[in-house]
What does this fold into?
Amino acid sequence: MHPLHLLVVAVEFTIVLGIMVLVHEFGHFAMAKLCGVRVETFSIGFGPRLFGVRHGDTDYRISLLPLGGYVKMAGDNDNPAERRLDEGFDLHGSDHPQDPAEFNARPRWQRVLIALAGPVANFILSLFLLTVVARYHHQVDQYLDGPAVVDYVVANSSAARNGITAGDTITHIGPDANPTWAGVLDDAALNLNRDLAVSWTHNGVEHTGSLHITSGGDDNELDPQQMMQSIGLIPKEQSEPVSVFSVASNTPASRAGLQAGDALERIDNFAPHSVYALLAYLQDRGGAPAVLTLQRRGQSLQTPILPEKLDNGAGSVQYRLGFTNRPAPIKVVKLPLSTAFRQSVKDNLQDAKLIKRVLKGMFTRQVSVRSLSGPVGIAQQIDMATQLGIWTLLQLMSTISLNLGIFNLLPMPLLDGGMIVFLLIESVIRRDVNMAIKERVYQVAFVCLIMFAMFVLFNDITKLRPHP
It folds into this structure.
């Protein structure tokens, strides 16, 4: 990476992360003020103070390390874990409050509210960002409003058993004639676990049959892509080949020599017009070796490739090649404010469920922790989103904010969720947990957190390293 570009990426990363941290810590700060707690320091970044301003009881500062931040409240100084962290984490703990304005002098329910306020602020930011995106730049895939042309048919699916093949056009489904793909999705969703009459044209000849409609997952939480995969119909999303945007290191794509800007014309004898069609083909072939035909700067190239089972980013693994594609053509609409807010809630809930699935997958060893991204990986994602435009960047910022909020609610010491657990335990036993026990827990948690951070950073660096 060019040094100037590296500097630009560092600036982008610092700005985006700074906003996330500012919002999170402002949540703690605002709730602490509402509860009458004296806030001594409001810092963006950790470590030594670079500059700032003091207003009232609070020192508002920018600190040296721009990888987080904290709010220091009155009464923090007696916390042995925090002394060791040199103001590195937001622990807010003293078993011996000195005055009513100290954190531990406040009722436990107020302390729980203060701990919750940071993650809640991140959730509010995420809702706000996606509401803005939906209000002014809601993207709808163009193919949804076009003819229902099939790009690929999944092997052994209901569509395959009916004889539908790639290139066919759905002419009737249920009561609808000449449906769009949006209409096909709607009719399928209304006829779950039933047979639905279907007609299609193949080489100009019309055929009829019956599709058995299944969700492919949870009937109460329909995923359109999952449902179409289960039925066996993969829509043709564009007339152009799939275009490569970036290539991940140490993947089949990088070893095969794929480059950003390549157009994937064919894999073996199949010409995919969407990533979903490509992935379905790879799964049907069981990861068998294949030959890619690429267009690169006007030249046609062929290269062998061996797909591998890689994390798909949704809590499971599947055969993949290891590149990010350029999005299919879209159209942009402006939703009314109320509709935009509902869309934001829907999108955030879907993202939260995805995060839940990934976390569950890591604990059940279905997802490798090597799939996690640390500062380097996040910086790369921010840089790619910036190249794709402000709306893509806002969507990524929403995802980061949501992740930050959920991560901080995990019941781990040194995180807001860990503090809440301690407070709930103390509420049940009606007394403070012994400070010696807290100190031991914080010490162990600190070591584990540092080891985890080092692992994630090392994982980021190994992904950057070139591989043969």
The longest strand covers residues 39-55. The chain is about 45% helix and 25% strand. Residues 3-134+400-464 form one domain. The chain has three domains: 3-134+400-464, 150-235, 242-328.
